Amino acid sequence: MDVLDARDSHAPLAQASGSLPLSTSAPAPDASERLIEIARATMRDLRQSDADSPPVTLDSRLDHDLGLDSLARVELFARIEQELHVRLPETLFETAATLADIGAALNSAPASPMTRTALSARRAIETTLAAAPPRSITTLPHVLAWHVEHHPDFPQITICTDAREEVITYDALWRDARAIAGALQKRVQPGEPVAMMLPTSRDYFTTFFGVLLAGAVPVPLYPPSRLGQIEEHVRRHAGILANATARTLITTPEMRRLATLLRMHSPCLRRIATAEELRADPHEATRADGLQESSTALLQYTSGSTGQPKGVTLTHANLLSNITALGQALEVRRGDIFVSWLPLYHDMGLIGAWLGTLYFGLRLIVTSPLSFLGRPARWLEAIDRYRGTLSAAPNFAYELCLKHVRDDEIAALDLSSWRIAMNGAEAVMPQTLVRFQERFGQSGLRRSALTPVYGMAECSVGLTIPPLGRGPLIDAIERDCFVQEGIARPVSSAGTNTIEFVSCGRPLAGHEVRILDDAGRQLDERHEGRLVFRGPSATHGYYRNPEATSRLMRDGWLDSGDRAYRANGEIFVTGRIKDIIIRAGRHIYPDELEAAIGAIPGVRKGCVAVFGSSDRESGTERVIVLAETREERSTQRENLREAINAKVVETVGEPPDDVVLAPPHTVLKTSSGKIRRAASRDLYESGNYQATQRHSTWMQLLRVIASAARAKLQLTLRQLLRLLYGTYFWTVFALLGVLMFPLILLPLSETTLWSIGHRMTRLLLLCTGVNLKVERDPATLSTAGEVVVANHSSYLDGVLLMAAIAQPCHFVTKRELARIPILGTFLRRLGVVFVERFEVRAGVEDAHRLARLAVAGESSIFFAEGTFVRAPGLLPFHLGAFAAAVEADRPLVPVALQGARDLLADGQWLPQRSDIAVHIGPALKADHPSNAFVATIQLRDAARRYILDHCGEPDTAGAAR
After folding, report:
1. CA dist., res. 428 & res. 593, Å (int)
2. What mean pLDDT comes out for the span 18-24?
3. Rounded to an integer, what distance in angstroms lies between the CA atom of residue 717 and that of residue 669?
4. Going by fewer Cβ within 10 Å, which terminus of the chain is more open, N or C?
């Protein structure tokens, strides 16, 4: 199949300079008048009144003057296409700032949508089928390499833009990715996070694998959809970049200016590059030998619907376990075709749609999210045109299709090939499923295709799926019993006193789900509680966020943050724990109320937040409704408030405590469109909701630049203070070293020398303000001959361990240090044991020598990782220490250093004042002393588990070597 060059051109910053990637010719007079007329009619319908409507001209700005958000733009564009019989470019949804921009595009827009005959004529597709790789392949780069070897010309990805398409084969993906990897290997370290801010395009796919092939870790960021959101975008992404400590950002030429703003707010960001620049670099990629199934494959940042985004650490094993389990549950077949418009920066689009199809050797037909938002019918037309069998979307997407796909478009569709229509990523509304099947059943969509699913980034993407071929299972239960007692008592039919939930099915193979009460006890069927899970797809924690990780993990189970109940083995999710309102012992579910209120004329659908606000006087939660409206007349606003009150009473049996009618853009949302209820509650309680209308683009840019200038000044001040502190630290270090060196040359015992070192290092930390906290497990032995194993993350780890451990020990370190003048003498006098790293036979002899030391009652300290890198994470452990403990039959004590990397990481020479915790674990003994190798592995794994649980860093075994 020919490859057509049809790259998606997203240029959200073009507007900043007053230019747009559109035709500059003015629309014909009659077209201008029709365009203004359509816009006025749209504004009338949105405001439900001609009174006080803003004047509409060709120069009217869609955001600032007309107040059109994404959904309102969808309506306007749909009307223009329908009434003027044109197909607007999908990129126009993002780039158009005024009506004049839309008018200019009308001159080059194709006349009338594709006919049924045209669609049918373009259904010829590649008939060659690919297959899934063997289960022995355990990393994503190896999966791609296997496909390149076995079917290099398979058209894995087809990118559709307007009436064009670009096909990417496995071989083309591999070649482009290797070119990018070669350039990156000069710029990044193994295991280092690399941020990607790219739209749906060839560059996204090739860059993602380029980062992996370079041995680094991709961090997808969402590109801004419009300049009107630039301030919020910069603030959110700066936080992500700071948490990820990403030093490299790959973006498009059009987004460079935005990336520069991000760099001003993100001190860690050093390099900004485009995929084209990286591909042009002649550097040849080398193999990333350290890549293993336990290596980190992706940092997937959560949407932040209930707080700040958190970086979910996902390994290759996590991703491939989830992909294979999903494939089994979905009964993936050779020849399946997945059609997706989902964003590639979210798990459902990235893992569920792309990486899943790449693994199983399926075709992926992909369009940009803007294409769908600009005209929702494009999604269904693509399923028809390419005979798609699999697709997925959040609930709001099915609602958009119900509202914006016209009857004549439905009549032209054939959806009979669509065998699995997944609905997930947000609350699934029962009535959406019913209405979608009723309306699109006439196009051949079977009810059995509708498949509500449940998952989260913390479980890679998917956790539960219902039985295939059954269709949605909607459970009608008695409302009062449920909201007061948490018991889902079924009723024969839905009524005024019922509430409905949709089954999300059963856990994937190899995964487990439990429903627990607040005390952690497992509940019976049809009792609502907290949903926890575990399985091979589950993350080990959040990146550089030990507090959030500790809240996530509970006795080996992960807390989903959702409430649910189980019935006949299937899971019914009822809502987010943080969002459910508890009032006088009753549970009120915001999703249900928001959907009901959003259907009231005058309320902006999808722009309603219902949340609880604490009432100190009554000791319960007040029910607050924050609803957006364009209505400004007092009489109409009062009528709207009364309608909302009546709807809430009708739905839950009692009125809300407060109804706030706010202007457009007040209700806060995530990048994926989810309501941020907690943030909206904070906004309400602060009383600032009347001042949240977005400022003009230039005002936002000025605020962002001013904020960046302040940040730059603060950064300069911090760097100066760091320089002063670093200079002071090394001065104190040198003075104490000068005092200590003559002492260690005296003929003193090793015990005395260690005592001197112990006191000097504690004095160093005290004088430099480093707070050292030592926690010792009660089961730790204090006998001679212990083998101590610690993680390694800083140049000063030896100093920290000497300060933390009072009894004398021998540090085990590389032989190269013995050859350094003065330092070698210093270390020898302190009893350091030097070992060979590169000669195998010498290394074996060193292991036996260390075992003899342990037998003789001499304790040793090993850094089991052997080295350390800048990026946070626990590396693989070498076996020497564990073999020595087994051979000597001595206890092994794991020690976890927490916070040391912040003190003085790899590549840094200026220490930063930090809080350090040293966790000394229980003494470990092998269970199988008769089998030395088994015993060695047991000790290694037990010690590593303890250190991983206490070091506060993710498991990046194999990510760096």
Report:
1. 14
2. 31
3. 34
4. N
Kindly report the backbone phi and psi dihedral angles of residue 68, in degrees, each rounded to the nearest multiple of 5, phi listed first: -90, 115
Buried-exposed string 686-709: b where 16+ CB fall within 10 A, e elsewhere = eeebeeeebeebeebbeebeebbe
Residue whose C-alpha is closest to residue 335's, from 389, 384, 382, 391: 389
Q: Which two tokens stand for residue 669?
A: 């949302």
- Mean pLDDT across 326-339: 95
Can you list the positions of beta strands (E) in 577-728?
581-583, 586-588, 608-615, 620-628, 658-662
Give the residues across from 76 on adjacent strands.
Answer: none
Give the ranges where 654-696 is alpha helix by DSSP (H).
677-686
Provide the 10 A C-beta neighbour count for residue 333: 13
Q: How far is CA 143 from the centre of its chain?
A: 22
At residue 925, does pLDDT exceed 60? yes
> Angle formed by the axes of helices 797-804 and 750-767, to 10°?
110
Residue 808: both structure tokens together = 């004398």
* Six token digits for residue 98: 């005024």
How many Å separate Cα 729 from the centre of its chain? 38
Query: Encoding tokens for residue 186?
Result: 């000069």
Domains of the chain: 14-115 (1.10.1200.10), 170-280 (3.40.50.980), 588-694 (3.30.300.30), 719-951 (3.40.1130)
User: Residue 959 in contact with residue 295, Cβ under 8 Å?
Assistant: yes
CA 249 to chain centre: 16
The number of residues in the chain equals 961
Phi, psi of 717 (to 5 degrees): -65, -40
pLDDT value of residue 285: 85
pLDDT in the model for residue 831: 73
Which residues, in sequence order, are CB contacts of 153 under 8 Å at separation 6+? 128, 169, 170, 171
Whether residue 222 contacts residue 194, with contact meaning beta carbons closer than 8 Å, is answered with: no
Cα dihedral: 870, 873, 879, 882 (round 10)? 120
What backbone torsions phi and psi does residue 179 show, to the nearest 5 degrees?
-65, -40
Contacts of 240 (CB under 8 A, 6+ apart): 195, 219, 221, 301, 309, 311
Mean pLDDT (the chain) is 83
Give the C-alpha separation, 823 to 924, whole Å: 33
* Cα–Cα distance for residue pair 230/249, rounded to 1 Å: 17
Contacts of 361 (CB under 8 A, 6+ apart): 129, 130, 131, 132, 147, 151, 154, 156, 334
- What is the Cα–Cα distance from 384 to 402, expressed in whole angstroms? 17
- Calculate what percentage of the chain has a pLDDT beyond 70: 84
- Burial of residue 134 (CB within 10 Å: 0-12, 13-18, 19+) is exposed
Other beta carbons within 10 angstroms of residue 484's beta carbon come to: 12
CA atoms within 13 A on the CB side of 460: 30
- How many CA within 13 A on the CB side of residue 747? 0
- Across 761-883, where does the E strand assignment appear? 771-776, 787-790, 810-814, 833-835, 860-863
User: What's the burial of 930, exposed, middle or buried (CB within 10 Å: 0-12/13-18/19+)?
Assistant: exposed
| CA–CA separation, 549 and 544 (whole Å) | 9
DSSP 139-168: SHHHHHHHHHHH-TT---EEEEETTEEEEE
What is the Cα–Cα distance from 848 to 826, expressed in whole angstroms? 25
Neighbours of 927 (CB within 10 A): 11
Residue 212 has what DSSP assignment?
A: H
pLDDT category of residue 896 using cuts at 50, 70 and 90: very high
Residue 95, C-beta contacts closer than 8 angstroms, at least 6 positions apart: 10, 11, 12, 14, 15, 20, 21, 22, 101
Please answer whether residues 588 and 623 qualify as being in contact, where contact means their C-beta atoms are separated by less than 8 angstroms.
Answer: yes
Secondary structure letter of residue 352 according to DSSP: I
